[in-house]
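Attaching the record inline, Q. Sequence:
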Amino acid sequence: MSSPSIDVELLGRSIRVSCPDQNSAELYYAADVLNKRLEELKEKTGAYNIEQLIFITSLNICHELELEKQKSVHCIKHIKSRMLALNKMMDTALNKE
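Structure, as predicted:
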């Protein structure tokens, strides 16, 4: 069974996208965020080639996502090392008793 389709608008163009009903609000939100970024880039660069705007915005989003992934990995490693240190401290404290 296929998902229902909804229409989203990007740079004045309507695009039909297959999306489950329970995810439609999230898709509309994502489309709105993307549209705002495309409009900002269009204003900043003066570019009107839609393909170029989409490619540049896509690259920017991918770059931001990769940076966030790296931050997450760093945070997880830091939390793990802190947990190991706490476990060691607890073991030491319990063994002294």
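Residues 5-95 form a domain with the Double Stranded RNA Binding Domain fold (CATH 3.30.160.880). The chain has a mean pLDDT of 93.

More tomorrow.
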